[in-house]
Write a structure and sequence with these properties.
This is Glutamine synthetase type III. The chain contains 24 helices and 17 strands. It is an alpha+beta fold and about 725 residues long. The protein is globular, with a radius of gyration of 29 Å.
Length: about 725
């Protein structure tokens, strides 16, 4: 019996996993996190105050105090049964990394002790030789460092019966270059904070810190583990490279917000319980549009913490799924013909005085502050749309963007009709001769045009990659498998730069004698005019929008290798260097890493396609051909007329034609891969894999394979079909 039929048979015997039941989330929330409340019980006053100052004010922690914090951390961890610790970091592999060490050591006299000091807490030295470095390091250079990030609390990871203390860290090379997602993000957040505070002080001198907030929405698929294991493409690529669409897919839209299947529901409750213990504030769960597709979403948090929590959640989900004999698919497009998965990033900015800068206020003054940050966001997206496009570029997301299920590759901004009218009014009414009497615009028109309850005055636009949704912007184009840090690093850096320029422009007018409010309005008007071409309220899926975007001069870069070019332009280098986020060397290295990641994934998919075609598809088709030929010959031998077996003959011919095409195209694809592999320039190689391998062969080979799936007998087909993976529970 094939793995496919064995998996189907086993579905009926799938055991239900008992899920711990907690009456209240609050009873367990954060119990495995070294929160400030927990720290208060395990640290001295000196150590506690130092930790708080580091978290809230970015103050450096003295080594002597670090020893006290380390002792408190160890005491807390040991009280919960922890024996090992690790520096938990996010290298540019797309997954998390950790090297576990025991608290156990031996003193010089042979006495065994448990020990964890400040030096170990602050810095470790994992072997860095095998992590992506983009040419920064030679193969034989292994040294790298992880450095503690106090702003993200330590937590305890429970895996089976084992418990490990995880210390969130950044990862740098021996020579100091950042080789992870977290380091640049922290720098971008600090740059945004500095620029935003200076602008916010126009309106409120009490603002001393501005924090970016993030609420992500994680979409994912869940299928049976045995069925997934019977698909080599899912095991190796995370997506199906072949698979005919079932008769029933998502066309009835009956899965969306439907009743959650019991087996999946048990899995959800299980991973939510683990997430709550880790302080991940999950709030929402529901069925998504495609069959077997689901979503979860948390309460908003500071960006740094939210990124850590999303990265951690993906690990937790994948691990917990195994307990339920399920497989979580986080690929952006695991199944053709139905919706793929994204990770909407809902972003805003909040002051330490309790104000959401992207929420309209109750007074003309607060509305002007809202308008300032609102328009600056639009200007930032307009000026750096190419970098936002690069931030979401990946082999997986290329399958999803613009596929009538996700935003197009054209970066545009949706603000809704009400705010579009406000921007239009400002553009036309604020003249170069703006005088004292025209201050009525500030005191009356804006207050009337920007109502306090703006949240529900416009519909949402799911086709927009960057949409205003009432008190935040939703970056909808981020892929489900992505690390949110990439998009958040870009977004907060471009905001830092735009706000910095805004302040210079406003101050220049004030120095010329303009009143502050009038100067602000003039620059707002200027930015509206300069960036209005990026505003779009219509259907982002339509061909008309693609044509209109081209007329406006908006880029429409559809493939990852070309989209990544934006990372290393002179404009990008200046942006990142002036805001101390990336050095030129780090930027070039990341560009190289992203290109390598793309071409390697396409290369793997090409090899898997060849393997499946030659070792699964063609043998099944040939076996069925033999059955047909035997049937035809037996009918001939019985003396029946040709009309009696004409159907079998036509079927045999069609299968033979498709078998020959598949075999020929697979061999041609192999040669194309060899030619691409001979290229020495990484960018040229990535472009070749996209244009000469993927674009030329993937769809054509798949087309004929999927046709064979409909022609070959179900009994002979060895790979689980879409109808089984998506619809069987």
């Amino acid at each position: 019996m094939s793995l496919r039929f064995q998996a189907i048979n086993d579905l009926t015997n799938a055991t239900k996993v008992a899920v711990p039941s907690t009456s209240k989330v609050t009873a367990i929330f954060g119990e495995n996190v070294f929160t400030l409340k927990t720290a208060r019980s395990f640290l001295s006053d000196e150590a506690y105050k130092s930790l708080v100052a580091s978290i809230k004010g970015s103050k450096k922690i003295d080594r002597a105090v670090a020893n006290q914090i380390a002792n408190g951390l160890r005491a807390w961890a040991e009280s919960k049964g922890v024996t090992h610790y690790t520096h938990w970091f996010q290298p540019l592999t797309g997954t998390t990394a950790e090297k576990h060490d025991s608290f156990f050591t031996i003193k010089g006299d042979g006495t065994p002790i448990e020990e964890f000091d400040g030096g170990t807490l602050i810095q470790q030295e994992p072997d860095a030789s095998s992590f992506p470095n983009g040419g920064i390091r030679a193969t034989f250079e292994a040294r790298g460092y992880t450095a503690w990030d106090p702003s993200s609390p330590a937590f305890i990871m429970e895996i089976g019966e084992g418990k490990t203390l995880c210390i969130p860290t950044i990862f740098v090379s021996y020579t100091g270059e950042l080789l992870d997602y977290k380091g640049p993000l922290l720098k971008a957040l600090e740059a945004m904070n500095k620029s935003a505070v200076e602008v916010a002080n126009y309106f409120d001198k009490n603002v001393t810190k501005i924090t970016a907030t993030l609420g992500w929405e994680q979409e994912y698929f869940v299928i049976d583990e045995a069925l997934a294991n019977a698909r080599p493409d899912l095991v190796q690529c995370g997506r199906t490279v072949f698979g005919a669409s079932p008769a029933k897919g998502q066309q009835l839209e009956d899965h969306y917000f439907g009743s959650i299947p019991e087996r999946v529901y048990a899995f959800m409750r299980d991973f939510e319980e683990e997430s709550y213990k880790l302080g991940i504030p999950l709030r929402t769960r529901h069925n998504e549009v495609a069959p077997a597709q689901f979503e979860c979403a948390p309460i908003f948090e500071e960006v740094n913490i939210a990124v850590d929590h999303n990265t951690l959640l993906m690990d937790v989900m994948s691990r917990v799924a195994k307990r339920h004999k399920l497989r979580v698919l986080l690929h952006e497009k695991p199944f053709a013909g139905i919706n793929g998965s994204g990770k909407h990033n809902n972003w805003s900015m909040a002051t330490d005085t309790g104000i959401n800068l992207l929420a309209p206020g109750k007074t003309p003054k607060t509305n002007l502050m809202f308008l300032t940050f609102f328009v600056n966001t639009i200007k930032a997206v307009h000026d750096y749309s190419d970098l936002l496009r690069a931030a979401i570029a990946s082999a997986g997301n290329d399958h999803r963007l613009g596929a009538n299920e996700a935003p197009p590759a054209i970066i545009s901004v949706f603000v809704g009709q009400s705010l579009a009218k406000v921007l239009s009014d400002i553009e036309t009414r604020v003249s170069d001769k703006f005088d004292e009497q025209d201050e009525a615009i500030l005191k009356l028109d804006l207050h009337r045009s920007i109502p306090e309850l703006l949240l529900d005055n416009t519909d949402r636009n799911r086709t927009s990659p960057f949409a205003f949704t009432g008190n935040k912007f939703e970056f909808r184009a981020v892929g489900s498998n992505a690390n949110c840090a990439n998009a958040m690093t870009v977004l907060n850096t471009i905001m830092a730069e735009t706000l910095k320029t805004f302040k210079k422009d406003v101050d220049a007018l004030i120095e010329k004698g303009e009143k502050k409010e009038i100067a602000i309005m003039h620059i707002i008007q200027k930015y509206i005019v300069e960036s209005k071409k990026v505003l779009f309220e219509g259907d982002g899926y339509s061909e008309e929008w693609a044509k209109e975007a081209e007329k406006r001069g908006l880029p429409n870069v559809k493939t990852t290798p070309l989209a990544l070019d934006a990372m290393i332009t002179e404009k990008a280098k200046h942006l990142y260097e002036s805001n101390a986020v990336y050095t030129h060397t780090e930027l070039e290295a990341r560009h190289e890493i992203e290109l390598e990641n793309y071409l390697k994934k396409v290369q793997i998919e090409g090899r898997v396609m060849g393997d499946l075609a030659l070792n699964h598809i063609l043998p099944a088709a040939i076996k069925y051909q033999t059955s047909l030929a035997t049937n035809i010959n037996s009918l001939k031998a019985a003396g029946l007329p040709e009309a009696a077996y004409a159907t079998q003959v036509e079927l045999l011919k069609e299968i033979s034609e498709r078998v020959n095409i598949i075999y020929t195209k697979v061999n041609e694809m192999v040669e194309a891969r060899k030619a691409a592999n001979n290229l020495t320039n990484t960018r040229e190689k990535a472009i070749a894999y996209e244009a000469e391998v993927k674009a030329k062969f993937f769809d054509e080979i798949r087309y004929h394979v999927d046709k064979l799936e409909h022609l070959v007998s179900d009994e002979d087909w060895t790979l689980p079909k879409y109808r089984e993976m998506l619809l069987l529970r």
